[in-house]
Amino acid sequence: MSIRLRLTAWYTGILGVVLILFGASIYGLVWYNTFHEVKNRVEEQGAQIAKEKTVGFSQGLDLRLELSQRIRLEDARIFWQLNNYVKGTLERSQGMLDREMVFPVPSIEDIGMKGEFQNVSINGNSYILYERPLVIENIIVGSLQLAADTNTEHRLMVRLKNMLIVGSFVSIVVASTFGLFLARKSMAPIGKVIEAASGIQTGNDLSVRIDYEGPNDEIGQLIGTVNNMLERTEVFYRELDEAYATQRRFVSDASHELRTPLTTIRGNVDLLKKMWSQDKGGTVAFDEEELRNISLEAMSDISDESERMSRLVNDMLSLARADAGQTVVKEQIPLAPLVEEVVRRAQFLPRKALWLQGDLSAVENTYIMGSRDYLQQMLFIFIENAFKYTQEGSVTIDAIAADNQIGIRIADSGIGMDREEVPHIFERFYRADPSRGIIQGTGLGLSIAKWIIDEHDGSVEVKTKLGEGTTFVIWLPTIFDASEE
């Protein structure tokens, strides 16, 4: 059973119980008031008859009822009957004679013990019967019975009962119909939620949103929550898809980069194996000097490619640690000695360009929060990158300061690159097209450098022009020297 039907069933059941209790209460209240009024009327007439002493014995011990003008029982639809216990006779009102009816006569033993009122039915008519004992000198000689015709009241109560039953039934039917309509209308947005969830389950479109223009009630809040969840799911899925794409590209590029040195190593090993196998078998194809030179050349290639593979693996491990959430342990360090050491050691790197030191006065008395080793690694990556792409000309390092930041600028006069390539140079394994296949490299250095800069809350600025060189400015936030406070 659906929620709409369950809500309607519960609503109808509760409404039915309420209507039954309400109808029973109304019916009981009207019943009590109606018949209580009749009883009061009969009791008042009996009291008035007793007060005026209209009942007495005539000659021959016959009971008589002498009514005054003020007591008109017939007008009040009240019938009377006198029961004479002395002579065993009874006297009735004219109305009873016309209807040929007689009230049941109570015995003299029961007249004092019976209740004052009782309901009786005579000839298909209903009456409320009131009995009073007739006492003379403390002796019960008879009884007076007054009865009120209650046919009209009973017919009224039957009509009221029918009206309450029919009205309750009609109310339940109408309320159930409208309740089902309102439940269906209220639950319609839930259907949209189910439809959207089913669409997402069966398809790949996570951009589906649930349209809702109703009030911000529980349903509105639910739909808003579902839309927010779908939005977050879409963002998460997009990021996950991008991560998978990056991972696939990373694996593909890594495989490509590793394939070349492995191929070179394997080729040289096969060459050496073939050469020395021929020499051992006695069919020497090379003289000793030539064999020695070829072997040294092959081993040199193997060494170079092994070193290249080692750098590539180390770079990949560094990026893997970064992806795993590894953070840099920072401490307060002076920047000037760090930069001076990098400048000194950089002149020993393999290069063809001039290594020039510019104005570094901006780093004097400057402190930053960072890791000395990681910062040196980052600077060497940019310097080696500049040497690699500058076959002639110069590479210059200097420093500038601005807004509590220090900028270390590394400029070269090398091959440069197009501006469209700048947003991609920090991607893993990305290398500008002019350099592919010409200049050795893995394409991971700048990715590692960017991660180190981000870990130090810094930024990097790139200025380049194809054929005229590239300038990197690494901005790092500075702090006050705690030792001077």
Short note summarizing the structure:
The protein has 485 residues and is α+β, with helices and mostly antiparallel strands.
List the defining traits of the structure above.
485 residues, alpha+beta, five-stranded antiparallel beta sheet, five-stranded mixed beta sheet, 51% helix, 19% strand
Task: Please give a structural write-up.
The chain is of the alpha+beta class. Helices cover 51% and strands 19% of the residues. It has a 5-stranded antiparallel sheet. The chain has a 5-stranded mixed sheet with strand order 9-11-12-14-13, covered by helices on one side. Helix 3 (151-202) packs parallel to helix 4 (218-281).
Topology, pairings included?
Elements: H1 3-52, E1 55-58, E2 62-65, E3 78-84, E4 89-92, H2 94-99, E5 117-122, E6 125-136, E7 139-149, H3 151-202, H4 218-281, H5 288-323, E8 331-334, H6 335-346, E9 354-357, E10 367-370, H7 372-388, E11 394-402, E12 405-412, H8 445-455, E13 459-465, E14 469-477
Parallel strand pairs: 9-11
Antiparallel strand pairs: 1-2, 3-4, 3-7, 5-6, 6-7, 8-10, 11-12, 12-14, 13-14
Helix pairs in contact: 1-3, 3-4, 4-5, 5-8, 6-7, 7-8
